[in-house]
Amino acid sequence: MGLAKTEMFTDEQNKISLFAKVFGHPARVAILQHLFKIDACICGDLVNEIGLAQPTISQHLKELKNLGLIKGNVEGTSVCYCIDKDNWSSMKDIMLKFLDQDIPNTNCC
Amino acid sequence: MGLAKTEMFTDEQNKISLFAKVFGHPARVAILQHLFKIDACICGDLVNEIGLAQPTISQHLKELKNLGLIKGNVEGTSVCYCIDKDNWSSMKDIMLKFLDQDIPNTNCC
DNA sequence: ATATATTATCGTAATATTGCAATGAAACAA
DNA sequence: TTGTTTCATTGCAATATTACGATAATATAT
What we know:
The structure is a homodimer of 109-residue chains. In chain A, 54% of the residues lie in helices and 11% in strands.
């Protein structure tokens, strides 16, 4: 298979897993951390910052863009990528709600 | 490939991506939410709660266990799974730090 | 001992992910 | 126009993930 049976889960569960999935690769974590650190960024910077080939970085950027977490403005021959503030906040709310659940007083462990 | 080049990233980046990866499937999200909701849990409950086959659930539980997020106590013929509080807290700290970064004032987007 | 119940493991098929070389597309410079 | 720079897309090989039937392993009950 290799295919998650999303139809048997809630929208919220699927949303959480989609966001988590995009954070599930260290290169995408590194890209986001770099975009947080500096104010603007072009793809070339990231290719130097991170050690992967240009097509690979481009692909990771595409996945982040598809989820709406970053946006890219074309500026001449280069593209300026940055965090999409609104969408990042929405994502954060959903993830925090999931991570911040009260830990129950288990009676068996 | 299908293999992440972890050696070019920091321990923190790799850790974040490993935790995120395990949340990157709705079944594991559902399992964790269910473990949060009730105090104790056995695998059989989860097979009924979630619609997947027993070997599939068992496999997902194994991944959560490998990362230390849940632990399982054998109780007769069944196993009682529950959240590992300490490890969940450690994970939460790492993930919150990543999610809660200050959004920069970009000058281009 | 035999049967039952519960969970784990193995094996396998289908699909997804990762990475990069090669190439394409678009804007700019000379 | 002809190059140059920058990023995207395509195509492919290697590996990972997901799901489940079959089966094993373990404990309990009769």
